[in-house]
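User: Run a structure prediction on this.
Assistant: Running it now.
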Amino acid sequence: MRRMSRRAFTLAALSTPAMVQGAVAAQEAVAAPQDGPRGPRPRAAARMRGVWLATVDNRDWPSRPGLDAAAQRRELTDHLDRAVRDRLNTVILQVRPTADALWPSPYEPWSEYLTGTQGKDPGWDPLGTAVEEAHARGLELHAWFNPYRIANHADPGRLTPAHPARRHPDWVVTYGGKLYYNPGLPEVRAFVRRAMLDAVARYPVDAVHFDDYFYPYPVAGQTFDDDAAYDRYGGAFAGRAAWRRDNIDKLVREMAAGIGRVRPGTRFGISPFGVWRNAVTDPRGSDTRAGVQTYDDLYADTRKWVREHWIDYVVPQIYWNIGFAAADYAVLLAWWAAVAKGTRTHLYAGEALYKAGAAGQPPAWQDPAELSRHLTLAARYPQVRGHVFFAAGDVARDPVGAMARVVADHYRRPARPPR
């Protein structure tokens, strides 16, 4: 097992929230005007200004597999520097995209997205470096894990021979041309929890982050084959759907408890698909007509997790424009604000920067001001404590200047991450 250097470990261990706030204060001092009366400046507001940095299929980073360690590190720090320039304060780095690892894990192989070969040591510690370099820049680093996805293909033979999915083929379900761990098996849930908590134990990450993948998105004409697990464990439930939701509830509760045990003070956040349920399905749902509902299709009761404070923050992926008929951003923002009202769970809005200027998107997304309007609208709701943008590659490219418009309109001064 490779270990962090003494210097890297020391710097990472010393990168506390207080130091992060100190770095923000330093940024403010640099940005402060030099004329006018001197005196204490107001403290920067606490707002989430985040960006997802996706590694699956080399979406954002590394730009391609097989780069040497120096090039990978340089690309990573370029993304962090870009976040600082845009006065963001949080980077959500995908560190376990497909039952693999971007750190020297004793449980799972090195990610193929680093070297092109699953299990091959890249010669450096990406997660350890990311934590150190983010904290040095006054950024929070949230470690983003995908719990159950094994591979974006359906061939177990392509996995490294020592892969847990090959050693435990009974854990695996093939569905929609991909491989998944079966969430209905207690031994699977225990394993993925251990694998993820290993990273939390090693590094002072500021938060653990899940995205929207629990049970996989529905594929027409296919069935997720968990019959054997349901026959064994589902007898006490009112149908398979209730049992599946309980499996995901258990993962969330147990992961939250594990984080608190391994590294107290580290937060836990989840970024679900933006629609919990449509109101036509459930009167508590949103006035939407989405084809997917997390409660019914992904078996994720995201509303309950917020209301019962099982998670510290939620970032619903409200990836539609204002006025979109089937799922209006304005309608969903108001719905999530009502869900979060009176709870201790922070609400941040997930923003579809990747749609800005993209071919095939509605006309609203061709307007560079669309995302800026989202932030203006969100300012009406005190429950909305910030925004997270998908994703880092789109922040860098910014083809129509949508991110530049957000920065100019809303991010003129630094902001502290909420705690």
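The chain has one domain: 45-148+186-410.
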